[in-house]
Structures are given as structure tokens and as C-alpha cells.
Design a protein that fits this description.
This protein folds into four domains: about 5-80, 2-Layer Sandwich (GMP Synthetase, Chain A, domain 3); about 115-285, Rossmann fold, CATH 3.40.50.300; about 290-360, Helicase, Ruva Protein, domain 3 (Orthogonal Bundle), CATH 1.10.8; about 365-465, DnaA protein, C-terminal DNA-binding domain (Chromosomal Replication Initiator Protein Dnaa, Chain: A). Helices cover about 60% and strands about 10% of the residues. It contains 21 helices and ten strands. The strands form three sheets. It has a five-stranded parallel sheet with strand order 5-6-7-4-8, sandwiched between helices. A three-stranded mixed sheet has the order 1-2-3. A two-stranded antiparallel sheet has the order 9-10.
Length: about 475
Amino acid sequence: MTRDAQEVVSALRKDLAARIGADRFELWFDRQVRFELSGDRVVVQAADQFTLDRIRKHFRTEIAAAIANIVGGETPIDFQAASRDDSEGRSTAQQTSSRRAKAAGDAHRRPKQRPARSSKEKLNRDVRLETLITGPANRVAVTAARSIIERPGAVSPLFLYGPPGCGKTHLQRAVCAQVRRAAGLRRVISLASEQFTSLFLEALRGSGLPSFRRKVRDVDVLAIDDIQFFAGKRATLVELQHTVDALLRNGRQLILTADRPPSDLTRLGPELVTRLAGGLVCGIDLADFEMRLAIVRQQALRCRRTIPNDVIELLAAELTGDARQIGGAINRLDAASEALNATITLDFAKRELEDIFRATVRIVRLPDIERAVCNAFALEPKTLRENRKTKSVSHPRMLAMWLARKYTRAAFSEISEYFGRRSHSTVISAEKKVNRWVSDGATVQIGQAACKIEDALRRIETQLRTG
């Protein structure tokens, strides 16, 4: 690249950083993206396809504006993913190799220490990404995980959230295991939130903070599960925030999971929430029928007796919870067929699993819907019953009425009376309006942010299913 071209690219990067903010530029563009002048066009080259797709989707407008400002005119833009033997890839490999060599040298100078592994990690160290059933509920998260495995530290933290049993812990452990194998990184540690807290408290009581900090900060990858349990633990939260800052500053990979998005983890404090949201946030939903069908088929392979297709379809249809529930049902079938020396048939499965099927059917009542909607929109209980007509209350109220029609057998008059309306026509009108919102892909306001109607409904319905 000529000196003039280098100056143009340097000015272009500065202009783009000013447009999107220094933190976002450093996260997405600093070492991952190259700009080149090729004839009459500008080439934007990302290190991998996942990064390229994110940049093209979220920053195309700002990139075009910066190019127009620096280069001038309507300059064509080419987005390209770098090949594996690209020079930048080699440079990254050299940096990684240098870092490993330094770590090896340090290891010779001090007694060898193996990272502490939790009992759960030992039991799950052979978990692989390939064993996780992929579908619409988790495809984005799995794609992000593959990107992390290829280039640990490129995007950090990776934040996975979703209801219990959606597979986020499986995905987290798979990334840790495969990063250790694929990248040759030895310093990979995975902890549950209570383990992090226990280690920290033990350090405070006597084992010493320096030792604890080396254990959780002198690593290539740190994964912490269910961080929502840190809420209210002030000292632990301060230590966690400093740990996060230290790892991000050194370009290390963080993988964190929770049962809700960062915006709902307000009890962790605004500073930590900002850091969590600044990485790659991926939501995971509970599996749909097709995914559950694949999960049942996968887990049925562990059964000592053959499970016919009609029984597999029955389990996928009735067990709408998580993979653990499916595994428990298959274990029950296996044990019952062994004890009774019986073939697993549809009637046998219905009879033996009757109590499990009955327990999975959760009856939804109007107070359940009211509570779920109020939680989603951060409203005080009983707000939906008040005679307030502002959008911040009327829109959630209409969603609650729509959900009441979908999940309960309550009559129009019963729903209108419960939500403090005078006439059942209000419920009819609300149902029609929400149906129109859904078909139009409208947005609703949740706090200070706008949210797609389908995302808001998915969040509320997940709470209704899981309680």
C-alpha cells in the first residue's frame, strides 16, 4: 500500500471511530478489520464471515458516510472475509504463538499450576458443539460460539442468556472444551457463579486475594455461569468487575451466561451491565417441536431398548420444557422397561410417564399473565388495572388481554372486568390491534428502549411457560 493510500485509510479509520464511538470501534474494527483502496473502490476485509456479517449489518451506513467524507463521492464498497492464509491471519497467529511462548517461559520459571476445574467441568470436559441440537432458538448463539472457537478474544465478552434448560450452559462448556483443543490453550477455566463467590470469600478469609486473582485473571478464557446470582453480593460484584476489566484489557475471552439479558440485570450495577452489553449478546429460547424431536432422538440412543418413532414424537410433543426433562423421561422409560421386561410402546410410554406429562402442563391464569407483563415492562403490580391511558400502560394492557385470549378460557367479560375495563368490547379491540401489530412487525416501548412486538411477546411467553 502506498504512503498516500495509508494516509487515506488512517483518516478513514479515525473518521469512523468518531462516528461510532471509540469503544465500539475498538471492539469491532481495531484488530479485526482492514480497509484497503483497490482502484476506484474501498475494500472492507474482516477476519471471518461472522464478523463481516455483523459489520455489514450494523455499521454499513457509518462506513459509507466515512468513506464519502474522506474519499469523496459515491465510492463503491466491497465487503470481504479474509482467507485463512491471509497475512493478517498469519500476524494474529504469530502474536498468539509469541504469547504462548512467553507463557511457556513463565511456566519454566515457576512451579507448574493447573487451572482449578470444577467438578461439573470435569464431568463435561468432553462436551462438543456438534452434540448441541441447533435450530431457530439458538442458531445465532451457536454461530457466535463457532466464531469464538476460531478466534478466542476477538469479541469479548460473549454473553448468552435464556430460560433454564435452553442449552446455554452446554454451549458455554462446549466453547471452553473446543478452545482448549483447537487453539491449544491450557488456561481455560469454567466456574458457576457460586464457585466464583466461594473462591473469593475463601481468599478474603485467609488464602489470599493475589492467589485468587491469578487463578481467575491469568487465563486465556474465563467462563462464569448464571451471573444473575451475583445480585446483591456487593464485594463479589466489585471483584467481578475488576476481573472483567483486567481480562478485556488484556484481550482475553470472557463467556458469561444468565437467565435474562444485560438490560434486565440492573441489580448487578450499571458499570458491569455496560461491560456485558458491550460485547456480543445472544439470546437462546426454549426448543421448538422440531428441535425437541431431534433432542429426543439424540437422547434415545442412550436407552438400552429401542424407542419407536411414535413414542419419540409423543415425548417431543408433551415435554415442552428443557433437555434435562427429556433426559429424565427417557431414563424413566429405560428403567421401567427393564424392571417390567416390557417393550416400549406408545401405550406403555403414556402409562409410565403420565405423572411427568401432567406436571409439564402449566395452567396459566389471569394473574400469571398480569405478573409476566408487568415484569417485562417494569411496571408495578396492578398497574394494568388502573384507568391510565398513557402508552406506557395501555400498550402492555392490550398485550395482556391478547395473551389472556390465547392462554386462558376466560370470557371477554371476565378479562375486561379483571383489567378494570367497563366493556368486553375493549378486549375485542385490544385483540384486533395486537394482531395487527404482530402482522405489521410493530415495536413497543419497554423502558427507554423500543422492542419488536414479537420479541416482547416471546419474552413474556417464556416466563409464562417457565413460571
